[in-house]
Amino acid sequence: MKANPLVDFVIPNRNNAAYIGECLQSIRAQTYTNWKCILVDDNSTDNSVDLIEKLIEGDDRFQLIALSERAGVSTVRNMGIDAAEGDYVTFVDSDDIIVPEYLETLVHEALRSDSDYTRCRHWLFRENGQLVPNAQDDVWSAPVRNVSFNDHASAVFYFSSWATLIRRSVLGADVRYPENVALGEDRIFNQRAMLNSSRISQISARLYKWRRLGKDSNQATHHLLESFEPIRISIIEWLNQTNTLDDSYADHKMFVHTSAFFELWWHVWRLRNELFDGRPHAQWNDAEQVLKAIDMDLVDLTQVNVKAYNDYMQSGYDAVMRNLDLSIKPLSKIFVDQVGRQTRESDTRPAPANGQNMHPLGKYLSEYASLQGEEFISSLIRQRWYFHQADLVQAALVRKSGMFDKRYYTKRVGDTGGLDPALHFVRYGAVALINPQAKFDIRAYYEKHPELWASGLNPIVHRLLVIGE
Q1: How deeply is 63 buried, as exposed, middle or buried, from its count of CB atoms within 10 A (0-12, 13-18, 19+)?
Q2: Which terminus of the chain, N or C, has fewer Cβ atoms within 10 Å?
Q3: pLDDT, tens digit, for every residue of 64-112?
Q4: How many domains does the chain have?
Q5: Residue 318 half-sphere exposure, CB side, CA atoms within 13 Å?
């Protein structure tokens, strides 16, 4: 084992001229000095290449690979891996920053524990310069030393490949970023790298600054409708890769299947709550097609047939509709208990996938709820309420309420994407703050009852069944 191993930085860049200088400055400031840096520019249309050439001029530790055609971030990172010659590889995004002790600390830990895959924690780096610990990520990044991937199931939630030092010998030809995945590619790469590693270590030191830009930036996660298809592809690829693991990875499979299920629903929640701010950014039917595709993804990845799945969910919604006088936490617990009971009592079992039997949905819900506790229980109804069965129930109540003016609403919306106006109001209109009639002010109603925004209960349904008007 070398006492002073060579480390290759791999930095992909695409139109980050505004930040690349700060990134490279943090590379040069490293207290550990035996490193080289490979920059791969993905055919930037700003002045990134000219700026990088100027910044690295005369410093032979830097190598720039400038592409004449756009290849995508996964291909770009793979090119960086292929060009690496050091003992270890570490990844830094071109708009991020590392602290001066980043390499020194990671190399020290890798040598001390003889780890193939060594990881640190990170900061969220706000536009105003504020540094905030990523507490959500910390839940899954508790310090460990010299563990195998097989014995460390929560490592499936290592979603970023930066802030990681990887022994280059681990990165065989089969350990590359998936080039068909444009978002969430890191977690798939990480899993491949950890499967090929004998020892994994996670330290508590916070050495990486992950820049989080505002909604006006070009960061992909801020442009939800455009990023929805890449997100879906990422989740399904992650799931498919996990399904190839043998039975000794049962906990990993449970984590990934359940996480994938609720990640899809979280993005459905975001789409319906953030996509529209009173004016549609896309045609309603575009969003509707996305949601229909996700419905089928959810069925596929849980391996539950459509009828059984709808029956499970409908039983939960029926139970909720009978208990709308309860607050959100007991209401959501009723939902979980009912769906779990329905799946356990049903004779329907998931169809085999690739010769392997999956857990039924009820078992996933039960196991995941026990791991996440009350916080998960209280959030479940928010993430699942918008399932189309609940939409249909609420739409029927809206039609019967006498508070929905179909002609008025349709005139306000213009295009409902082929949806029945009441269903459109339940699914999109309320969260887009489109009034159902001239005398019903949706915005004012949400302000008066802010708990509705989190619960998913339609304002008309709330007024009808909870307020009793």
Answers
A1: middle
A2: N
A3: 999 999 999 999 999 999 999 999 999 999 999 999 999 999 999 999 9
A4: 3
A5: 9
Q: Distance between CA atoms of 149 and 141, rounded to whole angstroms?
A: 13
- Partner residues linked to 208 by β-bridges: 98, 122
217 within some domain: no
DSSP 175: -
| DSSP state letter for 138 | H
Pairing status of strand 88-91 against strand 35-41: unpaired
pLDDT digits (tens, 9 = 90+) for 224-240: 455 566 777 788 788 88
Question: Which is more confident, 446 or 96?
Answer: 96
Long-range contacts of 251-258 (CB under 8 A, 24+ apart): 251/153, 252/153, 252/156, 253/358, 253/359, 254/153, 254/359, 254/364, 254/367, 254/368, 255/153, 255/154, 255/156, 255/157, 256/156, 257/301, 257/302, 257/358, 257/359, 257/364, 258/364, 258/365, 258/367, 258/368
Residue 456: inside a domain: yes
d(CA 56, CA 53): 5
The pair of three-digit structure tokens given for residue 466, joined into one six-digit string? 């909870």
In the chain the first and final C-alpha atoms are separated, in Å, by 75
Q: How do residues 307-317 score in pLDDT, each as one tens digit? A: 444 455 556 55
**Domain boundary, last residue among 151, 179, 212:** 212
Partners of 401 in beta bridges: none
Report how far residue 369's alpha carbon sits from residue 83's, in angstroms, rounded to the nearest whole number: 44
Structural domain including 171 reads 7-212
Burial of 132 (0-12, 13-18, 19+ CB in 10 A): exposed
Domain of 134, CATH number, reads 3.90.550.10
- Residue 335 gets the label, from left (phi > 0), alpha (psi -120 to 50) or beta, of alpha
Identify the bridge partners of residue 35 per DSSP, sorted by sequence position: 7
Pair 230, 343 in one domain: yes
Under 8 Å between Cβ of 171 and 82 = no
Query: Are residues 333 and 375 part of one domain?
Result: yes
Report strand pairing: 7-13 vs 35-41.
parallel
